[in-house]
Specification:
Elements lengths: L1 H16 L14 H9 L4 H5 L4 E10 L2 E2 L8 E4 L4 E5 L4 E10 L5 E7 L14 E8 L3 E6 L5 E8 L2
Antiparallel strand pairs: 1-2, 1-3, 1-9, 3-4, 4-5, 5-6, 6-7, 7-8, 8-9
Length: 160
């Protein structure tokens, strides 16, 4: 009886722990290109900004008008064209997905979401948001949170 119980326990464990979890990145809006070009001039976010995996840094971050930039000093964000991003410093790394969206009034939004709800570094949780794109260049972005909390973030592309 004991052997049957152990075999059954091993079989159940195998079924639960051997299943591979698949992460599906968010789908890009096919009508995005023409709308985004209208809103941001000649730069199309989906084809001009994250064309290759590249490093970005937070050069400014504020919450309710209070400068929080020091909490993001040395932070490395890597945005890739497959709609993934990684945030890291010397000790920790977290991954997530990004997606540009355009609202009916042609506002460009950048949605950042971590893959795990338990982000290791507390201040990094502020990065996960739906951001209104205020300024967009191939090497710089100025973003403002669309949530009730007044957050702004400035990103700069850099070689690392």
């Amino acid at each position: 009886m004991k052997k049957i119980f152990i075999i059954l326990l091993v079989a159940i464990s195998f079924v639960f722990f051997s299943c591979k979890k698949e992460t599906v990145p968010p789908k890009q809006d096919t009508a995005f290109a023409s709308q985004a070009e209208t809103n941001t001039g000649k730069i199309n976010p989906s084809t001009d900004v994250f064309t290759t995996c590249f490093h970005w840094g937070v050069i400014g971050f504020s919450i309710n008008g209070i400068d929080q930039s020091s909490a993001y000093s040395g932070l490395d964000l890597i945005f890739c064209p497959d709609n993934t991003f990684t945030v890291s410093n010397d000790l920790f790394a977290e991954s997530g997905h990004w997606m540009f969206e355009v609202t009916p009034d042609n506002t460009v939004l950048l949605n950042l979401a971590f893959d795990s709800p338990d982000v290791t570094v507390e201040s990094w949780r502020n990065l996960a948001d739906v951001w209104k794109v205020l300024k967009l260049e191939t090497t710089a972005m100025m973003l403002q949170s669309t949530t009730t909390e007044a957050k702004t973030m400035n990103l700069q592309k850099w070689a690392r």
